[in-house]
Amino acid sequence: MTPVESNETDRPPVYTAADAGADSILVVDDAFMLRDRLAVAFQQRGFRVETAEDYDQAIGVFSARPTDLAVLDLRMPGRSGLDLLQKIKQLRPATRVLILSGFGSIATGIDAIRLGATNFISKPADADDILAKFLQGDEPGPLPRPDAEFPAPSLARSEWEHIHRVLADCGNNISEAARRLGIHRRSLQRKLRKRAPEDPGQPM
């Protein structure tokens, strides 16, 4: 695995596998760059890391090499993170699962907890943010109302999500993604090296 240039890999970790009381973690996200960045970061924190890009791949990986923790993207092509959450809990009830929920999916994140997730966290989130949520245990604290209003994502955040969705649709082929986006390949590479932009006022 080739580490992706990121602030995440440049700073010392706040939490480690020992802090989380776990030896292994599964990261499931259809955005390759995000998945790879988190995998590198979790490896640096002492975890055995397994990765997958969708439901089917995740079930195959998890069945062969179960993990203590699992981080699942809520929205992926094909079956959702909620479907995957339920299947993982069937296969190994002891696995603690955290759901990554993007804009407009807070209510579904609450549903994830009711279905057995340890917690949920809004994107963008780095390895330490994720481990902090696991360390909170099974009590996520006060949950926002499902009908609560949340600020729209920033333009930078929307662009970041669109770029990673196109890249995933292209099978992580940077040249093809650049062609579809109408930008130069080098410009796309520069954008991919940046961490996901924060949204001011984004709920956690």
UniProtKB/TrEMBL annotation:
The keyword Phosphoprotein applies. Keywords: Phosphoprotein, Two-component regulatory system. It comes from the Bacteria. It holds the Pfam family Response_reg. GO terms for biological process: phosphorelay signal transduction system. PROSITE patterns: RESPONSE_REGULATORY (PS50110). SUPFAM superfamilies: CheY-like (SSF52172), Homeodomain-like (SSF46689). The keyword Phosphoprotein applies. One of its GO terms (molecular function) is sequence-specific DNA binding. Residues 24-138 form the Response regulatory domain. InterPro entries: Bact_response_regulator, CheY-like_superfamily, Homeodomain-like_sf, HTH_Fis, Sig_transdc_resp-reg_receiver. The modification 4-aspartylphosphate is found at D73. This is Photosynthetic apparatus regulatory protein RegA. It comes from Roseimaritima ulvae. The gene is regA.
